[in-house]
Fold:
Amino acid sequence: MTAIRIDGKAMAEVVRNEVAEGVARLKAEHGITPGLAVVLVGEDPASQVYVRNKVKQTEACGMRSFHHVLDRETSRDQLMTLIDRLNTDDQVHGILVQLPLPDHLNSKDVIEAIDPAKDVDGFHTRNVGTLWTGGSSFVPCTPLGCLKLLKSVEPEIAGKHAVVIGRSNIVGRPMAALLLNESATVTMAHSKTADLPALCRQADILVAAVGRPQMVKSDWIKPGAIVLDVGINRIPTEDGKGRLVGDVDFDDVATVAGAITPVPGGPGPMTIACLLANTLQAAKRSYID
Ligand code: NAD
Structure:
């Protein structure tokens, strides 16, 4: 391996410590304790794990955590009533509705019902619009974490060619907007992109957010490029437990790249840390407003 391994776990700890200090200051100076409400509908096992981690880390950095677990059959009206209540609750500064929702609930509708000032996931169209027009808004946590990881190895992003593979609203699109706001030249690739390896070979910065295990190989990489691997995929192993891998073939790509994030231990841990940072920011804004 020749590439620098970008340590998302260590960096997430730094962010969490900064948030904890900010929370302590806000409490001491203004008597405000930031609060994050997490809403989970149904019993999706992966979502339950994410929510448990979010609650634990929210409390660990001194914030209040409001945890709402609703029955899988919860109606749209019941969910909207809860969101209205959280929107007007002064102790709640951030609201997160864990996705995916059960099929009978329209996630777009639900996200639009959240007060944009409490939308710490950055999914409300007002925050999306602000991001794309170069303003200051809540930025979705995974791409925000990726940008911090990128800046830890490359402070000068302006003028670099960044290729983002994947165009989801959660990762690919906001990642492209963030890189554009940093004056990178951004190309978005997706499932219909022709000759993806050739495009990726032009990238100084490559972000993979696809959901295809170890798709990106070393012959896709420009020597010295920075590679951020957002993908989280479980592949089968002989012991039956399975193993988590990214969208990038780490061992292969690390022989050519200049720096690379591992999976696990890359953008994953940064995501919750950035959620906490966004919640602190929401609480500070509530004070200023
Ligand atoms: P998604 O399914 O919504 O989007 C996948 C994107 O990949 C689509 O835009 C599609 O066009 C593109 N794509 C699919 N096949 C392709 C191909 N062969 N070539 C090029 N592009 C292709 O997924 P998502 O929600 O953006 O998540 C992507 C990955 O990131 C998943 O593995 C997910 O688990 C992971 N993820 C990780 C975190 C984290 O905290 N690290 C957060 C969110 C998502």
Remarks:
- The domain at 31-115 is CATH 3.40.50.10860 (Rossmann fold).
- The chain has a mean pLDDT of 96.
